[in-house]
Structure formats: structure tokens, C-alpha cells
Amino acid sequence: MIDIKMFSRQELIDWLTRHSKRAFRAEQILKWLYLRQAESFEQMTDLSKDLRAMLARHFFISRMPEDRVLRSQDGTCKYLFRLQDGNSVESVLIPEKGHYTLCVSSQVGCAQGCRFCLTGKGGLVRNLTTAEIIGQIWEIRKALPDPDKLTNLVFMGMGEPLANYRSLISALEILTNSDWGMKIAHRRITISTAGIVPRIKALGRDTKVNLAISLNAATDADRTALMPINRKYPIAELMGACRTYPLPKGRKITFEYILFKGINDTPDHARQLTKALAGLKAKINIIPFNPYPGSEFQRPDRKRIEAFQKALTDKHFTAIVRYSKGLDIMAACGQLRAKEQPKA
Ligand code: SF4
After folding, report:
1. For residues 139 and 65, is the Cβ–Cβ distance under 8 A?
2. Catalytic (active site) residue 160
3. What pLDDT score does 17 carry?
4. C-alpha of residue 106 to centroid of ligand 1, in Å
5. Which of 259, 266, 272, 256 is nearest to 218 (CA)?
6. Which residues contact 317 (CB under 8 A, 6 or more apart)?
7. What is the pLDDT of residues 180-203, one digit of tens each?
């Protein structure tokens, strides 16, 4: 038996054609899977009994039940999903005014080794499949009292999404397709990257989603000390890719800047940042670091955070301080790490 969620639209069309069924059935099936979130072929009542039985003989509809849900005092929920092979990933549901934003994972672990990030500490275990990326959104949306309230997705969970490019692009097709997919608007999806330059260019060609860059320092020396990827793709190259990223009208690239006490938090650092971003359609998210047990970095005090922000706004940049939510359940930026090991 095959998980039908592993099939792309084209693969499904090919399968149906091989079995003497009409190609347009593929979109009916996909609509049931992703739009109406059917759990069985029986529910697909606009297909003949024959076809439903045939599908049930060849396929199953995979589920990704959550192993654990942690609820923060501020309403943020962290979901731990156990995968088929015993690995696990985390997703974070953040309540906003009138809607939800979901922070999605793209890999088990991460190979980028950013010094401040818990996910990166154990290295990369493996890429998620398209079905596993979609599974996080599918399960959480289905469990919500009003599934339509889940409107925004940020790929800022575990892993570097652009290092799992093919699965990411297939997932984006399912998420955004307005005929048979989940109908989530491109402008409500943000892909955050540590800066894989060739894939940023590809993303601009292949999709219309929002781009966020995890920058965190504005000189090569400072950035390389925090993020080893900067050796391969230094700031000038990264900014070059951002300058040519095809932004729809009115949109900006988000630059995330985690503020570490005594490392990158002075007005001088802020001025370096304004120089690096000069001429770009940019907004800056200043994220005061969220320490975790054993972390080597600390969070600056409020005065320093405000001075850093002022140095940016004085130069007419949009700079917003974002205090992460879900601190009490370790759901904040850079704190995700599914500790559970694969079952023996
Ligand atoms: Fe990977 Fe992102 Fe963590 Fe860097 S910050 S190690 S890219 S998950």
C-alpha cells in the first residue's frame, strides 16, 4: 500500500490513466485530501463506489498524530509530531488577533550549525518529505474549531527549508493551489533562510512567497562567528541575491536580527546593519535572544534593545522588536529541539 499523500498531482493523473480512469478525477481526489481534509476514501462521495474501492485497495491516507502538545500561558502551543521512522519534529501554533500563525519545520535537525540554535546542535538527521511538511499543517488545521483561522505560515521551525528544496516547493504547491489545494495565499507564507544564495534565487523564480533572511550580524567576521554558512555565502553575495529577489508590489524582505548581549547589540552594529541593507526593500525584526539551559549567549537589557532599535529607525528603517512567545514551553525562536530519540 502506498501513502496517497506521497503522490504529486501529475503522478496521480498518471496512475489514474494507467488504470483507465479519467485524469480530472485527480483534482477531485486532491480536493478531498487537502481542501476538505478527508480521512478515508469512503468520504469522497463524488467518486464512484468502484473508484473509491480501487483507491482503498492501492493507497492509504497517512496521518501524523501528535505525540504531545505543550500549551504556554500566552496561548502558544507547541506540537510534537512522531514520524513513521520514530524521529520527531515540532511545530508552533501562535494565536494572533483573529487568526493563527503556524511555525512549520522542514527537516529533522539541521546541518547549518548556527551557534545560538538548539536545533542545529545535533546536526541534520534527515529531510522531511512533502507529506510530512504538509502533515503538520493538515493535522493542526483539522483540530482547530475554525480551521479557516489558520491563515499564516512561517517556515521558521526546525531545519533550513531551502536545504530541502524539492519537498518545500511541492509542499508550497499543495498549500497555495486555489483549485484543489489548501488555498493559503502566497503573501501569507514566509520562508526563512540562513542564506543559501542559489536557492534564494530559485525560490524567487519558482514561487511568490515572502522571504525572510536570518541575518544576525552585518559584517562577515561577526556573522561567520555566529553562522558558519556565511563562509560559503558571505554578506555581499547574500545581499546581491536579496536585491534581485522579485518582490511583488508593496512587499519587503524581512531581516531577522537576533540580539545577543555584548555580541551584536551596540548602536555601531545597528549602523553596520543600515549600511548592509541600504537600498533594499527591507523590514527588520529585532528578536531579543531567548536563553535556554546551557546556552552560551544572553539577552541584552531593554535599554540596549531600545537603543539598537532607535539607531535603525533614525535611519528610516522599519524595525520592530519581537519578543518571542511560548518561552515557558521552549517554543521560541531557536529553541526547538525534539529531544525524543527514534524508538529502538
Ligand atoms: Fe538551522 Fe535555522 Fe537553527 Fe541555523 S537557526 S541551525 S538554519 S534551524
Report:
1. yes
2. no
3. 97
4. 11
5. 272
6. 274, 277, 282, 283, 284
7. 999 999 999 999 999 999 999 999
